[in-house]
Amino acid sequence: MKKMLKNSVFAVAGLAIAGMASTAKATDLNVVSWGGAYTASQMNAYHKPYMKLHPDIKINSIDYSGGLAEMRAQTEAGNVTWDLLDLVLSDAITGCDEGMFRPINIDKEMAKGSDGSLPSKDFLEGTLLSECFIPQIIYSTVFAYRSDAWGGKKPTKMADVFDLKNFPGKRALQKKAINNLEWALIADGVPLAKVYDVLDTDAGKDRAFAKLATIKDDVIWWTEGAVPPQLMADGEAVFGTGYNGRWFSAIAQEKQPFAMLWDGQVLDIDGWAVPAKGKNVDTVMTYLKWATDTQRLADQAKYISYGPARKSSGPLVGKHATLGIDMAPHMPTKYADQGFLTNFSWWADNGDEMNERFAAWLLQ
Amino acid sequence: MADQQSGGELVLAADGTPLKASLNKAMRKNRIRALLLVTPLFLFILFSFLLPILSMTFRSVDNWHVGTLMPETTAALKNWDGKDIPDEPVFVALVADLQAGAKSREIGKVGTRLNYEKSGMRSMITGSARKAAKLKEGPYKEKVLKMNKRWKELETWTVIKRNTAPYTIGYYLNALDMKYDKGGEIVMQAENRQIYGKLFLRTFAISLTITLICVMLAYPISYLLATLPLRYSNLLMIFVLLPFWTSLLVRTTAWIAMLQSQGVLNDLFVFFGLVSDDNRLQLIHNLTGTIIAMTHILLPFMVLPLYSVMKTIPPSYMRAALSLGANPTVAFIRVYVPQTLSGIGAGSILVFILSIGYYITPALVGGTGGTLISNQIAYHMQSSLNWGLAGALGALLLLSVLALYMLYNKIVGIDNMRLG
Fold first, then answer.
1. B363, A223: Cβ pair inside 8 Å?
2. Is A97 within 8 Å of B109 when comparing Cβ atoms?
3. N or C: which end of chain B has fewer CB within 10 A?
């Protein structure tokens, strides 16, 4: 026993020394992402394989809860400790305009598609909206409903969400103006392509708020993404909005009696931006080129139900790594024609005004 | 003093130095020691509390964006009379600034800043900067006017000119539901965008309600704790402290499980036939839920000061009052309660100020009714990145709390507050 103890002490000491030696040599990359299952999918698809290929690089995964507040604080203080940031497109546009992020020449600095196509052609149309942003996944904010709520009746379109007579019960919506206003207009009969034209007029804004008011008494407003699946699981709500990845794990992993209502899904893009004043810009660019190539993006879809942002990755999407479910039908990109892309420049211009109006409307 | 010194004899210490100097020397050592003892805390408060507050407050008036990033336009607009769209020289300056801003990638900050004043200015600035980068030669006025229809509006230029000033009251106007109208006069914000005034009032009303409920609930508990024999009161004390030691999120989530319509409380109501199954009470995701959860979380802050004050009141006072002929109610109201006022005051101030700043619990259980002003401050800090407005709202909140504190001091007297 004593000898074993002694040996293990030596072993631990040896490991510690080896560890110190390797950290002394290694370059640390601080990669910031959303945490939870999402960061785990990046760990498995990108970080771990890359560290295996490049033993001199150590990737530290840091969790954050979104938004640019910390990034801006670091940039203003002149001490940027983050090397790579996972963020939504709208934040990338804002940060790029404020000079927080490094512009990337996508055709020169990123990998070609597996079919040899230029990156600017290989990434899905409409995803390259900021020169500082490399798309990674397509996700969607989408409605799900309790499939046991109304006997045999099933909602099929956005208007059903606003139909309290045929589909009674509480709706769990995010406490934000964005998306809710668009959905209200779609339910009111505005075609997908016309939503922002209508919303840009005063009458259109009034119309959206008026339609939203028809279900106001039956809404539970949520602020944390984990809440809507919980509310539906508890039977508190019959409809809920949420990120499609969370619905997937509720349905496929936790076997909840939920079903997806893909109609009117809001497609959004999540991806990478490189802080302009980061300390390891060159190292991180090499990593980024590798981590956003065709195979890597397809690999990530094995761990989470978010669609890869490259066309060439689509055919490579396989089965879920542990559940063995074919992932392709769970990708929001499959139902892209039923959804729309948020008009970010409209929201950048009108977000402040709409937030105030929405908050005032909630208090009425 | 001086007269006394020159008139009287100098008193000398044993070693021959004047007593005063020798005393000073001894005192100086003490003073330095006291100063050194205080320094760590003072520095801590300075760097982690005072400086951040000052810097956020400064942001609420700071208006460097246009003046710094568009220096030529700022200079060119100095003599503009504000009556009509400016002439070519201003546009030459504007194009130069936009080109420089596009190159340094900082023009977006101007767009963001101006968009707070008028929706749409952001895309006007960033879009025009992209187009201006390709402009080779003048005359520029016509070309710029074609870039975005807003350049043709007089209001655009009024807004730009107003924000060439290095300081602004714009954020405070916004925080008070006011704005500049097209002519630059200060007016109330449109009805459907008035929000912050209402939220301030609602925050104070909810905090006051919670404070009152806390007093009513905590008073009997504290009385029991203070009068029971020690071995019982210690056990009860643990019941008070246990939730105090539990994480805020855990307690909030527990309340959701208790109060939701398929939750424990409603199940009990249905079981006992108090409400019908399809008519369950909505106790959470509204104002009721916010008040219940926050009262529970803040209750220990009321119980502890009340308990420690009641503990020091000798039971003989009540006995004396009774033996002098007061009936129990009179004795309690006229003898016991006045002695606990200092504890009520201390507890109320703690609970009230804490509840004014709460935002996690209202965000989780509040629904529509539970939004407080701190939720909006957090939104502007984290999501909209409008730190100027967040600073202005924070400064107003701080000011109103200080005002209430002074009012309290005037009515009750802060010296009467005791935490134990």
1. yes
2. yes
3. N
Give A96's contacts in chain B (Cβ within 8 Å).
Answer: 105, 108
* Residue in A248, A258, A242, A230 with CA at minimum distance from that of residue A146: A258
> pTM of this prediction?
0.85
**DSSP reduced 3-state for A343:** coil
Give the pLDDT score at A11: 52
Q: What's the mean pLDDT in A50-67?
A: 92
Question: Which residue reads 């009068």 in tokens?
Answer: B227
Of residues B63, B64, B134, B62, the one with CA closest to residue B98: B134
Long-range Cβ contact pairs of B54-58 (< 8 A, separation 24 or more): B56/B387, B56/B390, B56/B391, B56/B394, B56/B395, B57/B391, B57/B394, B57/B395, B58/B391
Asked whether residue A245 falls in the same domain as residue A216, the answer is yes
> Angle at Cα B392 formed by Cα B387 and Cα B395, nearest 5°?
120
Is pLDDT of B38 > 50?
yes
Pair (A110, A218) in one structural domain: no
Question: A18 and A154 share a domain?
Answer: no
Of the options 1.10.3720.10, 3.40.50.2000, 3.30.160.20, 1.25.40.10, the CATH number for the domain spanning B196-416: 1.10.3720.10
The answer to whether A311 and A294 are in contact (CB under 8 A) is no
> Is the Cβ pair B385, A219 closer than 8 Å?
no
Residues of B with CB below 8 A from A76's CB?
Answer: none
Per-residue pLDDT, averaged over A43-70, amounts to 92
B108, B175 Cβ separation under 8 angstroms: no
Q: Does A223 touch chain B (CB under 8 A)?
A: yes
A168 and A201 share one domain? yes
**Looking at the complex, does the CB of residue B202 fall below 8 Å from at least one CB of chain A?**
yes
Q: Measured between CB atoms, does A349 come within 8 Å of chain B?
A: yes
B277's CB contacts (< 8 A; 6+ apart) are B270
Determine the distance from the C-alpha atom of residue A153 to the mean position of all C-alpha atoms in its chain, rounded to a whole number.
31
Report how far residue A178's alpha carbon sits from residue A350's, in angstroms, rounded to the nearest whole number.
10
Domain containing A185: what range? 139-268+340-363
User: Is it the case that residue B199 has pLDDT exceeding 50?
Assistant: yes
A65 and A145 within one domain: no
Between the two ends of chain B, the Cα-to-Cα distance in Å is 42
Q: Give the residue from A180, A356, A361 with the most B CB atoms within 10 Å of its CB, the best one to mutate.
A: A356
Where does the pLDDT of residue A21 fall: very low under 50, low under 70, confident under 90, or very high at 90 and above? very low
Q: Which residue has the tokens 């080779």?
A: B136
Give pLDDT, residue B417: 67
ipTM, 2 decimals?
0.82
So what's the pLDDT on residue A25? 61
Per-residue model confidence (pLDDT) at position A22:
47
- Distance, CA of A282 to CA of B187 (rounded, Å): 52
Gap between the Cα atoms of A20 and A14, Å rounded = 10
Q: Do A67 and B202 touch (CB under 8 A)?
A: no
**Residue A317 belongs to a domain with what CATH number?**
3.40.190.10
